[in-house]
Amino acid sequence: MTNRHGDFIWYELLTTDTAAASRFYGAVLGWQARPAGEATQDYSIFGTGIADVAGFMRLPAGAAAAGMRPCWLGYIGVDNVDSSASDIVRAGGIQHMPPTDIPGVGRFAMMADPEGVVFYVMRGAVEGTSTAFSQTERGHCHWNELAANDQKAALAFYSGLFGWEKGDAMPMGAMGDYQFIDHHGQTIGAVMNRQEDGPPARWTFYFGVEDIDLAAGAVSDNGGMIHYGPAEVPGGVHIIVATDPQGAMFGLVGPRKSS
């Protein structure tokens, strides 16, 4: 895989009902679902019909018993999974799953940052470049947003490991700055302080849609819940933050065409 160290290369939904997730995200984002193949028998793929964007699987029983709930996770591409996993632990993170090979797919490890926010590191074995994160393609991830308990510490942790840099910042009143993060000259997302009365520290991934109002309607009509938006953000687009019927939080971003 030709992605650079620190790129977001994949997204994954852990859910309690894979059939329901397939229907929901098909209705909201137009994704098509298919089995991943023999090497990953319990794993399925979401795609746009042109490119694969994300995977999904049933939340493992052990993870559920430990308190994990349905969620979206991100994969960060690295040059060497083993050394990155070690570096993460030395920086105060946690290793939940050791470096593991998936034949024909790549090597990955499930980690968490010092605040307990889970993510993966991966070195893909396939040819080409992942476009799961692409801000110009409908149905792909357009934005990676971290809500942290300690914004400064979170920025230092991820930047030190993945080479991310601080970009512009947008004041958010009592919540502090909404700090953009840049990688190789591209703004890939932001880190913000978590609201005290909001959900725990987490990554939220925003997927691109053609019409935010139609997408918001599809969320509500198919059993999801909108927690915020549609709201305009810089760039003339609108966002919503929602949970799917199983409780996994996600975001959508796109223009407002219906009104």
What is shown here, in short?
By secondary structure, this protein is an alpha+beta fold. It contains 5 helices and 16 strands.
What does this structure look like?
With 259 residues, this protein is α+β, with helices and mostly antiparallel strands. The protein folds into 2 domains: 8-124, 2,3-Dihydroxybiphenyl 1,2-Dioxygenase, domain 1, CATH 3.10.180.10; 141-254, 2,3-Dihydroxybiphenyl 1,2-Dioxygenase, domain 1 (Roll). The chain contains 5 helices and 16 strands. It is globular and about 50 Å long. It starts with 7 loop residues before the first strand and ends in a 5-residue tail after the last strand. Pfam families: Glyoxalase, Glyoxalase_6.
The residue-averaged pLDDT reads 94
If strands are numbered along the chain, what order do they take across the biggest sheet?
Answer: 2-3-4-1-5-8-7-6
Report the helical percentage: 10-25%
CATH class of the largest domain: Alpha Beta
Beta strand count: 16
**Main beta-sheet strand count, sense and barrel state:** 8 strands, mixed
Summed up, the domain count is 2
CATH superfamily of the largest domain: 2,3-Dihydroxybiphenyl 1,2-Dioxygenase, domain 1
**Order of helical and strand elements:** EHEEEHEHEEEEHEEEEHEEE
Sum up the overall morphology in one term. Answer: globular
CATH topology of the largest domain: 2,3-Dihydroxybiphenyl 1,2-Dioxygenase, domain 1
- List the total number of helices: 5
Q: Structural class, from secondary structure content?
A: alpha+beta
Question: Low-confidence parts, pLDDT < 50 over ≥5 residues?
Answer: none
Ends distance? 42 Å
Domain VOC: 7-124, 139-255
Organism: Microvirga guangxiensis
Pfam family, one: Glyoxalase
Protein name: VOC domain-containing protein
